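Hi R.,

Here's the input for the DOR complex you asked about:
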Amino acid sequence: MLKLPGLIDLHVHFREPGATHKEDWDTGTSAALAGGFTMVLAMPNTQPPIFDAETLDLALNAAKRKARCDYGQYVGAGPDNADVVAALADKAAALKMYLDMTFGELRLDDMILWMPHFQKYPKEYPIVVHSESRSMAAAILFAAIYDRPVHIAHISLREEVLLIKAAKEKGIKVTCEVCPHHLFLTQPSPSGRGQGEGEKPRIDGRFEVRPRLATQKDMDALWENLDVIDCFATDHAPHTLEEKDSDNPPPGFPGLETALPLLFTAVEGGRLTIEALIQRMHTNPKRIFSLPDQPETWIEVDENASYEIKASEQFTRCGWTPFEGWKVKGKVRKVVLRGKTAFEDGKIMVQPGYGENIRK
Ligand code: DOR
Ligand code: ZN
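And here is the predicted structure with DOR in place:
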């Protein structure tokens, strides 16, 4: 049995408030514990979005009642809330800015709207940006100009990892994360579905995710530049199968219960070391986000367990995984959180409300 520190996922979507048929704080944090995570940071693109004191309280109150592992809640950057969110910084995980189109309503198109956030959000916390390709380059320029930490969410492209490498060499305060799905999946060819008259061929809804799955060349570049990548984050973004298979599939994959087995299998295959995994799933997230210690907290992983990933065994409410049937090695047997066994042999052992807010 391998004993590791409690894993930290700095990028999850729990859908509460607003869309608890996809996930809520109870099922989301249960999935986290089953996946070996003892701390999660939740994104603000809920309904309503989390962007002021009132909505932050809404999310934190739900979390306080229902979370089974420790948690933080991001606030979202809106067109005119820079003062409001800066004042909430000590209660929030960090600030999230959406610079590109995705699920939810928080996108900030106009650079003039980015400026007050970069000026005002306290520099002891990073600004996390959803920024792809050229908007990522713009976000890095903002980090340089305003001389403040910026964390780039879910990078997926060769050009992105190479630009971040160059920016780090210049001393710009930029960090980044990669999601397992961008390390293990590439863009499938468009299926015949949706090929009615006048319709473009399209990607099967189950594979829709933002940023999109990329090419083999992009995926190889991520693996070749692992030293540039600070964190692994799941971007756990549950949507139901009915929604994913509909005519208007929302983007996103669940990821909390598959991240560790997938990455551990890469360790077994010699593509990654266990030390590099711990750095990216514990040490670096903790440092970048100034997260507190979790005393008497660890996980135990059976390194010899070989098995198939099955959605039917998961705790997430969404009921599916893009990794169905994948053969992996490494099973989380036990999670101890602040002195208490929180998960053991497939069972959640702590009640809703056991989780603590990481910003007191
Ligand atoms: O695929 C995605 N799903 N990308 C995002 O940025 C948002 C997420 C969601 O909330 O569903
Ligand atoms: Zn996300």
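One thing worth noting: The longest strand covers residues 298-308.

Cheers,
M.
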